[in-house]
Specification:
alpha/beta
């Protein structure tokens, strides 16, 4: 049981059961511990994984649930031991709010792989035994080590999706060396994909967008893509055979894995970032042809998230967003599922 009093009251958007409509509610956050930061949330992005959890697609949902892990706001109070942040600072919180801090992964800044188990910002049990509630809220209390600074060059509303969509695409591009001389394909140009294009282009890679239709072609070029192909045309896979060093798969549905493996170069990697509901299937012979790899990337650590934010501010990288009111969230979820958003919804928490 938690030994800390809960006396910070805040309004939230809560889903009472799987696939239910959202309700406005009130919860209590824990009082500040010495290393805590209290944040007035200004904006929170809507990620497809929020929808997966709210719909209990993975079977691990605990309800009532307060989703949200793309949090941008302003510090309103700090614990007695906090020196990194002060009242009035512009800050963000992403997917994680705690880890052991002692294992090899935590020590090297990859808290997402914590051996004890990283604590996710919502629908997760903290080390104190309490369930976590996320950023569809007006206030949140977070350990200072899991808070990042939002540079002045980024507006708070546009910065919020970077806390998940940004780091989710930046981290694998950096890990697989997507720089000058590399050919990178981005499969799907939604909330993740349109940021992946910007990051890969800025890093120096030659970027190709792979999409199911032509309706985002002009925008893809505006974000920095050099090429655009439609995946529903079988000729695409013939023309692109063996070309890419890296494919970032940003879609949340199952794909024809063998077809996409066929357009990888020798030692190329297909990196999965989306979370489909069902397992993918592939033929192992598709890997033999070029020592190809199928892998995935899980967000990024706190140090790398700060690096990504600084990189974005320096190079003018930002998501295209649509800001919504709190009472529009159910409609926004439906529109995300229908691929009807350019390219990330962001909730204005002042409307809650």
């Amino acid at each position: 049981m938690c030994n800390y009093h809960k006396n910070i009251t805040t309004r939230v958007l809560s889903v009472p059961s799987a696939k239910a409509a959202f309700e406005q509610a009130t919860i209590e956050r824990r009082d500040l511990r010495p290393d805590d930061v209290l944040i007035d949330i200004k904006y929170c992005g809507i990620c497809h994984s929020d929808i997966h959890n709210a719909h209990n697609d993975f079977g691990s949902g605990v309800f009532p649930m307060v989703p949200g892990h793309e949090i941008a706001g302003v510090v309103s109070a700090v614990g007695s031991d906090v020196t990194k942040f002060a009242v009035g600072d512009r800050v963000g919180v992403g997917c994680f709010v705690d880890s052991c801090g002692e294992c090899d992964f935590c020590r090297r800044g990859e808290e997402q792989f914590c051996k004890k188990g990283v604590v996710v910002v919502f629908n997760s049990i903290g080390y104190d035994g309490d369930l976590t509630y996320g950023g569809y809220s007006q206030k949140i209390v977070v350990k200072d080590k899991f808070v990042v600074r939002i540079p002045d060059g980024l507006e708070l509303d546009a910065a919020s999706p970077l806390l998940c969509a940004g780091i989710t695409t930046y981290s694998p591009l950096k890990h697989w060396n997507a720089g000058t001389g590399k050919k990178v394909a981005v499969l799907g140009m939604g909330g993740l994909g349109h940021l992946a294009v910007q990051f890969a282009h800025t890093m120096g890679a030659e970027v190709t967008v792979l999409s199911h239709s032509t309706n985002k072609k002009d925008e893809a070029f505006s974000f920095g893509a050099s090429h655009y192909y439609v995946t529903t045309d079988p000729a695409t896979f013939t023309e692109l055979a063996g070309q890419f060093d890296l494919i970032l798969n940003t879609v949340s549905s199952n794909i024809d894995v063998d077809a996409f493996l066929s357009i990888l170069n020798v030692d190329g990697a297909l990196v999965n970032l989306g979370l489909p509901n069902k397992p993918d299937q592939y033929n192992v012979f598709s890997l033999f042809a070029g020592r190809r790899s199928i892998t995935a990337s899980n967000v990024g650590g706190i140090k790398e998230t700060q690096e990504m934010l600084d990189f974005s501010a320096e190079h003018g990288i930002a998501p295209m967003i649509e800001v919504i009111r709190a009472d529009q969230i159910d409609e926004a979820y439906e529109r995300v599922l229908g691929s009807d958003v350019r390219y990330r919804f962001v909730i204005d928490m002042s409307t809650l």
